[in-house]
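Journal club side-thread
Mid-discussion, someone asked how the predicted structure for our own chain would compare to the paper's figures. Pasting it here so we can look after the session.
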Amino acid sequence: MAAITITTNEIGQLAAVFTIHSARAQSLAHVAARKALLDIEAGAKARAPVDTGFLRNSIRATQYVTAIGGEVVAGANYAHFVEYGTSRMAPKPYMGPAVDAVLPSFEQAIERIAAMDGLL
């Protein structure tokens, strides 16, 4: 089974408008995306159930260099089973709730950046 990957497609779509606007807006959007990715990573690590610590230690955020956004990956081969459960094990979500906790503040940051750049 593959690892869990949370990509910031929605975040990237929301922030993509900055690729055609001011360098300042692009820079601020990159900073906001980086903060969101690191917050998701921290939240997922805090929520991940711990037996050996392997799952928690396998969670990493990576920011895209050429686009605004990134991904948070839980690289443990059993990460999917923990997040979504199996027929014999109840789900113990850690990644989804971490995204849900961070997304509203990221959206607000992007809206503030857009307002400052005259996009809203």
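Post-session note: The helical segments are 9-15, 23-47, 54-57, 79-84, 95-116.
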